[in-house]
Protein 1
Amino acid sequence: MVYAVEINNVHKRFKNVHALRGLSLNVERGITYGLLGPNGSGKTTLIRAIIGLLTPDSGEVRVLGTKMPNKAILSRIGYMTQQTALYDDLTVRQNVEFFAVVGGLNGDVRAAVDEAIALVDLTDRANSRVRELSGGMKQRCSLAVALVHHPDVLLLDEPTVGVDPQLRVQFWQHFRQLNAQGVTLIVSSHVMDEAERCDRLGFLRGGLLLAEGTASELRQRAGTATLEAAFLRFADAAVSSSQSPVASS
Ligand SMILES: Nc1ncnc2c1ncn2[C@@H]1O[C@H](COP(=O)(O)OP(=O)(O)OP(=O)(O)O)[C@@H](O)[C@H]1O
Ligand SMILES: [Mg+2]
């Protein structure tokens, strides 16, 4: 099987911070994979390594079978950054159009742009400059920008922060539709009810995968009623173990 994403023993250091410590993980195609972990656990670093924005010190990342970093495959990947990366002086429509073209969208750009803007419920604000939007609206615009070029793999770094509950539900419905079309989503989150919606989850801590599986598998393995408690159980087990925590599959 060609996985959407394969991460094999990846290490990344920033000066004295060992942000990824031999992390390995495979993500099947067409699923939503959730990355969960506290601040500084390596979620953003891992996502940046997947898209090829940073090169691991050692280890290997493959996206759709291609070793990263690789520019040719970027048109098949969408990335929503944790901090919005939009052009403040451009309108919503201009931003989405720009990223559609940069992302190498083939076919009807206008239709794809309209569709992406409608999806995030910004049609009424399509002609507003980004700097005039509320925080949640900027977040919504960032999602439109990430998916307008119809990527096969979509990396979303805390996509629903600041998004109201109603729209959050709509986002997740759309993520499901994308999965049904074969798109693979990797979503980082701190929100446990969102984690429940993911097909599989990876618990990250200190640049390592503490545990991996479906939400119910993780709860069962930890012997806990909630995912939150399961995370703490795996984290405690890793601390008390003299060995490095190892992901089981
Ligand atoms: N460019 C950088 N230079 C130096 N250190 C960095 C850099 N990027 C990340 N780090 C460090 O690597 C570690 C992992 O950071 P990362 O941003 O991946 O965490 P995260 O899990 O995304 O956290 P959060 O939930 O706060 O977004 C942290 O200790 C962070 O300070
Ligand atoms: Mg982060």
Protein 2
Amino acid sequence: MALSRRFTKFTRRQLLAAAAGVLSACRREPDAAVSPAVDPAKEWLLSPGSAAPDWSLLDPFQESITRADFERGMLEVLSNGALWQQVEVLDTEARIRMSTPQLNGPRYTLRFAAPGRPATRGTRYWRTLGELPPLSDSTKPLSDLHIVLDPGHIGGAWAQMEERWFQPPNAPAVKEGELSLRAARALAPMLEALGARVSHTRTRPEPATGIRPGQLLAEARESLLQDRKPADEEEIRREAERLFYRAHEIRGRGTLVNETLRPDLVICLHFNADGSWGRPENPILSPRNHLHILAHGCIGPDEAMLDDQRLEGLLRLVQHTPDTELPLCSAVAKRMRESTGLPPYHYFGGNARLVPGETYVWTRNLLANRIYRCPVIFCEPYVMNNEETIARFTAGDYEGLADVAGVVRPSIFREYASGVAKGLRDYFSARI
Ligand SMILES: [Zn+2]
């Protein structure tokens, strides 16, 4: 799940956590009139762990998108209006605010392509359906495709720190970071059998980043100072841990994906939760179970003010990423709906938007689906704190079918994986 808990009042730090996409949809206050604190003495307003934005990354994409496509992408995918306050759209170019604190500072000028001109690839490392080589073997529709599996969270000794565990009665502990690894292990051979090359952001319950919380104490002190929070040693230690698993761990994976692996797409594998499970030692179980898939978009007003998030969102737009990502998410949602039989999850709040014509696919601005510079399919099936799901976790992975909780069915990991694999097969079978 892409959730956190226990926030009732927004502070700057919590807003930044929201901007990184780690607050629960159901706990976020949709109409809260809040903005990040802007210090005009600073050069940038940034998300936690972000480097200064390099606006020259947009340079290779000059004249790569028409004004009509730019406006449509801004309105229908990237933002529900918030970005328009930061981007001035003229006839032949967009003028983009580079720094929120430097209100009257220089703007980045992005020139539009003439209508009818084919989109340029710029420095984009991933390939669209039309750019992949033609299929020579129709039984391997994923051939020549490089896919990265990104099992969400960490698990293992880190599960308690990252608050992604609970202990159900009479069953093994549930740790999302380990369940997502098991889903990845089930999925990889299915994708390889369809011809794909598969890489992983991690294969063990260990962080992908080399950074550890102990190295983030100064950053934690600064973060707490900005909130004017009393910074005793215990609170500083906790803040350093939050910065580690919410920001630096995911940014480490971003560096791996964008600079080393450079795949055609990333699949983020998560399990969801329903509401809060309360105290991990005595969790609240839910009768509900559901599924949804996330594509990137729906940047909110507070998020649009963060200079790094504005750049990353626009980079996705000029690379025409939503044109591939949204149909991919739709194809995977259709098959996961069939494989799991789960009803759709529905967000109530302003931080996610249902994609028109879909019932399972939402846009949401998460750190992982924003900073990976390629199409991302972010999967959120199954409610971990649902009793039937816990019984399926306890049954583990197995071949074929077995009776679990009174129903004969495949293991939860293979059911999850087969839905994803079939969705990708459907999408990439359109290659000629
Ligand atoms: Zn998760």
